[in-house]
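Duplicate of #3305? Posting structure anyway:
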């Protein structure tokens, strides 16, 4: 007698694996043209952020030479740019709910562009720091709105990939910034890097409406919540019993990731120049770091879809801590230093980039912009204080090369925060931000 295979399946049902990143039933809709344009425009806007982040690292050594200053004095300039992003990111959610995300994003890009153009006319460190703070305010308000818009305009089944891809605009912009600065600065001087950085955000202003016009009515910035108990987007909702532990741990992890990323992009070019490497070699090394970051973000983003963020990201960041520390060990061996730059970007940079994309997915739609903005702001608060502390440490006698150990320790501690976050979360992360339903 032939056995019916369906009987065995009925008696011993296969255990379904709960989805790690999934959307609600209502979010599974067909992809329209606007849902392709939104991630593309978001990618372009985040690329400008990446260019700005990297260009100051290249410009600082040239300004130091032109003004006869020690590169260690630029810690306050690096900190000012980061400090500006804090109030910008904190105010992004409340301002978007009051005035509309389009108006806030346009104003942010305008402040970003005009402030960067004005930076080219700075005549001393005080002016440079003040203008970098203003640029940071515009940049800080723009990023959470862009990421939230990409998440809310992306279909559920592609949302993780598209948000991660948009976040990859930062290393792409940094890589392009490396190539452009290598051409612009030797030929036209350091001011040319700021002129280009100021023109770019003004050029993408017309795309803001396209980025936001596909926003679906169910999203928190365009509709009224249907359920009375849905988070209202207020800051105090981040500390409700449901989200308190998530908020504190993700803030710590985000701060540590931003800290080690900013250490590398701000200090690596100056450190290798100080050890006798050419300007082109410093561009190559930071370019390899950013290339590794881009590849790592794409690879880890795909692995997250399969294995979940709490298995992939801690492993990546722990490995990143090792490779970041190797930058100090290999400082005098050019081939080893190039390899360490690439692999530290792949592991630490790629893991940190995926963490930035995960911020958008941790909270439900009603709390998404506020949660993302405050996580970025608090994260950068620690990173803003970092350069100031580093400046004092360098003046006290700390070798610049030892900063790579600090970066490695920050990546390791970020991994430990994510391990703790995995233990306190009761359910997997949904693409919509809502806890996904476990299978039987």
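Output from current build:
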């Amino acid at each position: 007698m032939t056995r019916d295979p369906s009987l065995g399946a009925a008696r011993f049902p296969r255990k379904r694996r709960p989805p790690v990143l999934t959307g609600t039933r209502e979010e599974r809709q067909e992809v329209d043209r606007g849902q392709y344009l939104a991630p593309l425009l978001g990618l372009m806007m985040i690329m400008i952020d990446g260019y700005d982040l990297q260009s100051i690292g290249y410009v600082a050594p040239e300004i130091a030479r032109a003004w006869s200053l020690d590169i260690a004095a630029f810690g306050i300039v690096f900190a000012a740019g980061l400090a500006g992003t804090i109030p910008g990111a904190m105010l992004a959610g409340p301002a978007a709910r009051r005035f509309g995300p389009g108006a806030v994003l346009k104003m942010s890009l305008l402040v970003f562009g005009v402030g960067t153009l004005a930076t080219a006319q700075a005549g001393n460190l005080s002016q440079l720091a003040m203008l970098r703070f203003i640029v940071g305010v515009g940049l800080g308000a723009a990023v959470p709105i862009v990421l939230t818009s990409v998440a809310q305009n992306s279909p559920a089944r592609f949302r993780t990939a598209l948000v991660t891809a948009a976040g990859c605009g930062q290393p792409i912009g940094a890589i392009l910034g490396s190539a452009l600065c290598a051409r612009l600065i030797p030929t036209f001087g350091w001011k040319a890097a700021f002129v280009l950085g100021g023109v770019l955000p003004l050029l993408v202003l017309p795309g803001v409406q396209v980025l936001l016009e596909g926003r679906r009515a169910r999203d928190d910035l365009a509709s009224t919540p249907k359920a009375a108990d849905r988070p209202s987007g207020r800051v105090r909702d981040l500390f409700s019993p449901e989200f308190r532990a998530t908020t504190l741990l993700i803030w710590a992890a985000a701060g540590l990731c931003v800290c080690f990323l900013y250490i590398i992009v701000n200090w690596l070019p100056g450190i290798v120049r100080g050890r006798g490497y050419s300007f082109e070699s410093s561009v190559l090394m930071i370019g390899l770091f950013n290339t590794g970051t881009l590849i790592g973000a794409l690879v880890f983003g795909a692995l997250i879809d399969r294995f979940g963020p709490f298995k992939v990201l801690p492993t990546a960041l722990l490995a990143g801590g090792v490779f970041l520390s190797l930058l100090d060990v290999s400082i005098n061996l050019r081939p080893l230093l190039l390899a360490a730059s690439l692999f530290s970007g792949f592991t630490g940079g790629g893991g940190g980039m995926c963490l930035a994309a995960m911020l958008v997915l941790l909270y439900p739609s009603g709390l998404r912009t506020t949660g993302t903005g405050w996580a970025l702001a608090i994260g950068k608060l620690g990173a803003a204080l970092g350069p100031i502390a580093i400046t004092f440490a360098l003046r006290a006698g700390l070798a610049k090369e030892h900063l790579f150990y600090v970066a490695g320790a920050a990546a390791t501690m970020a991994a430990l925060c994510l391990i703790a976050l995995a233990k306190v979360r009761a359910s997997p992360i949904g693409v919509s931000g809502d806890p996904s339903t476990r299978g039987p």
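Confirmed duplicate; merging threads. The chain has one domain: 32-222+232-424. The CA atoms of residues 272 and 282 lie 6 Å apart.
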